[in-house]
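Action item from last meeting closed. Structure (86 res):
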């Protein structure tokens, strides 16, 4: 789905959304959020998970949709910047 797309989904269905960065160099980080709250791979629940496929791709999976899963989901790319001071 494109960023502006919406879809009608049914309770109990599985949903998997994949976010892939097509431009930009390393190092970078891809993350998913729902209603402004980051869904980190380490804070995933039994029904919602984020899997980092590689440096450029992250997949959000919801095993069984319920009304609680309604909301605004956003995938973001963060460029990691490191400065070494000597």
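Sequence:
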């Amino acid at each position: 789905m494109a960023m502006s797309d919406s879809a009608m989904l049914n309770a109990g269905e599985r949903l998997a959304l994949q976010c892939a960065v097509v431009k930009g160099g390393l190092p970078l980080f891809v993350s998913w959020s729902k209603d402004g709250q980051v869904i980190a791979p380490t804070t995933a629940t039994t029904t919602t998970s984020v899997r980092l496929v590689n440096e450029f791709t992250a997949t959000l999976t919801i095993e069984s949709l319920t009304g609680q899963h309604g909301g605004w989901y956003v995938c973001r790319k963060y460029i990691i910047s490191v400065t070494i001071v000597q």
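Note appended to the action item: The chain is about 0% helix and 40% strand.
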